Amino acid sequence: MNKYLVILLMVIFYLQCTNSPNDSSLTIYTHRHYDVDKEIFANFEKEMGVKINVVNASADELIQRIESEGDQTPADLLITVDAGRLVRAKEKNLFQNFNSSMIDSTIPDNLKDSENQWVGITKRARVIVYSKERVDPSELTSYEDLADGKWKNRILVRSSGNIYNQSLMSSLISANGEENAMNWAKGITNNFAREPKGNDRDQVKAILAKEGDIAIVNTYYIGRLLNSDDELERRAGNAVNVFFPNQEDRGTHINISGIGIIKNSKKVELATLFIEYLLSKDVQEQFATANYEYPINSNALSASVLEEWGDFKEDTLPLQRLGELNKEAVMVFDRAGWP
Asked: Among 27, 162, 165, 322, whose Cα sits 20 to 30 Å from the Cα of 156?
């Protein structure tokens, strides 16, 4: 039976079993700001007859808002980027458990909470991109190798306050220990081409401008640059190649956008159905095609540009560890002098 039809029948059954007209709506607090999300929410409304109310803000603002609203929060679901933020929300007791055989069979264990309080909905890899003109890819091997003196004055990266860098640092602490991770951070700071500033796209633009030769960025930014309406951004995307580090050992660092059901929501069944909808093959391919994120559903196809980069070995570290080690990661950055 068609997956959408199954979900639709489940929604109809759910609505028939509830008495309140308010049960036919969901309120989503989301950090994501992409047009594709709006399209997917609108399609769910149209196909399922469930009203979607959306509140957009930063993850920290949304978490604080849910805390302050307490039992009166209208939020049913929280969507945010980076597993570290999902762990933070769980630690603040903002989520509740939910169960679904579809979700269990679709999401690998390392990409969801061990107590079923949040799950990933899309994946991204944090990779090395390098100048096509000035870097020989045979010199690249791992994140750890970027601390080598041969890369002095060549590395571009965001500040230590960025959650993506903090989660990468958490993965390095898990793999190598805190002291080795600090030595790595010191090596990277010694190799900075400039003081950290800007977002991932800005690092790639700086390679185009010859301010540095190598950057650490999330994969979906490269897809967005290559397909941008802005000529400068397309030139920046075409100035670099993607390298997946640590293929000879643990694999490339992976992170997610993810979702959890708010503790005080009374619509767990409907919220779970919505999560299943986001994980369905067609919707996963919609995410992938529009925003160049890797699907979490293994039956879904990736965007063509991601396919061109080829398959790679992923680090299978349980992503909840990224949040659990976040405080240590921040302290390592501080000790290493990474701005």
From this structure: 322
